[in-house]
Amino acid sequence: MSIKFAILGILSFQPSTGYELKKIIEDSSVMYWSGNNNQIYKSLVQLLAEGLATNEVRHQESAPSKKIYTITAEGLSELRSWTLSAPEPPEFKKSFLTQLAWADRLSPDELDGLLGIYEEEVGSRLFMQQEKTRRGDAFAPKRTPRETYLWTMIEENVHSFYLSEWQWVRNLRKELQNNDAFKEVKP
Amino acid sequence: MSIKFAILGILSFQPSTGYELKKIIEDSSVMYWSGNNNQIYKSLVQLLAEGLATNEVRHQESAPSKKIYTITAEGLSELRSWTLSAPEPPEFKKSFLTQLAWADRLSPDELDGLLGIYEEEVGSRLFMQQEKTRRGDAFAPKRTPRETYLWTMIEENVHSFYLSEWQWVRNLRKELQNNDAFKEVKP
DNA sequence: GGTGTCATGTAAACAGTTACATGATTTT
DNA sequence: AAAATCATGTAACTGTTTACATGACACC
């Protein structure tokens, strides 16, 4: 899936500038791109060329002028047919698991320290995700009861990703601490 | 994290050819690269240049000759210091969540169908992961009790990723089916 | 006779990140 | 005086995938 559909989706909710799209994508946990300029401004040019969006330049005093992009009817139908297309399976990148895979050369203390750092890192993501939901400051269209429910469940999904990772590492750490068989150091 | 450390890790367990590395990486759920030639053969050349591995060409009758790569002492110490370095936070890419985010334009039946396909897709990954563990055919060094435990917990982590996604989508689907407030169609 | 395994590599394309560039205004 | 916000864009690089290329043998 390309960033193009993420942009089309946002435009289907509200006309936006590249700058606004960047910010929305940047602090969304679901839309996983970094939200860098290169991708966004290039995609917008492409959407124009494909006739999926139009833009309108608005000049401003005391601020740079901006281009407000609006989705077209073709854009809406392209978006709709994409939402109906076969879903891609979920993927993860946990480089920490590869790190752990070769961590048997570490001493018990070194390993526990490593797990501690990971626990903290994951814990802080978990906390930030909870805060975002609690404050309700996340970008979230709520046009129908169903849409509201869907967006709640999307945030719930992200939350449970971090929660289960956090529980997993805490449990692993505890087990390593409590079982003396794991404390033998390799020659 | 680059594929370089995944390769160094495997080499720290057993000397291997590029072809063998490719297969191990390809069917590992943890090492998330596609295992394509380009990356592997280039990385091996680089590891040689950095003195982290050496190779030995073995000519074979009735099969192409192969290059067996062996990790060096510097390679081992590089690997060790990497395992001690600050872990990266876990990441996910679930393009399906973005798809769902804009799915309120779909009819209840279309949405249920979409969720059904995702449920099946995730279910089959979950099943394959369980089978891999059950058959015990996954690549897994078991040199000490601790290493055995670590690799078990790594597989457990992958398993629970798919399991919680599966439970999430089943629950979402059921709720949408049971609550009539979600069955109103937008004008 | 076609497909699969063993085994190495290259070319081209696409996706994604970081950093650069400009410039006014507002906040600390 | 420095940093952040608004706003658009480009350049260079890295990472990743798909496809191409070769060739022998084994299995169905």
Structure description:
2 copies of one chain form a homodimer. The first copy, chain A, has 187 residues and is mainly alpha-helical. Chain A is 60% helix and 8% strand. Chain A contains 7 helices and 3 strands. Chain A has helices at 3-13, 18-26, 37-49, 73-83, 95-101, 108-135, 145-178; strands at residues 53-58, 66-71, 91-93. Chain A has a two-stranded antiparallel ribbon with strand order 1-2. The radius of gyration of chain A is 22 Å and the shape is elongated. Chains A and B meet through helix 1, helix 4, strand 3, helix 5 and helix 6 of A and helix 1, helix 4, strand 3, helix 5 and helix 6 of B. Strand 3 (91-93) of chain A pairs antiparallel with strand 3 (91-93) of chain B. The structure holds a DNA duplex (28 and 28 nucleotides).
Number of strands of chain A: 3
The largest sheet of chain A has its strands arranged as: 1-2
Instruction: State the end-to-end distance of chain A.
Output: 48 Å
Structural class estimated from helices and strands of chain A: mainly alpha
Rg of chain A computed from alpha carbons, rounded to a whole number of angstroms: 22 Å
Query: Major sheet of chain A: size, sense and barrel closure?
Result: 2 strands, antiparallel
Largest interface: A-B, 70 and 70 residues
Helical amount of chain A = 55-70%
User: Please, how many helices of chain A?
Assistant: 7
Number of domains of chain A: 2
Strand content range of chain A: 5-15%
Uncertain regions of chain A: pLDDT < 50 for 5+ in a row?
none
Shape of chain A: elongated
Task: Indicate the mean pLDDT of chain A.
Answer: 94
Order of helices and strands of chain A: HHHEEHEHHH
Give the oligomeric state of the chains in this entry, treating copies of one chain as homo and distinct chains as hetero: homodimer
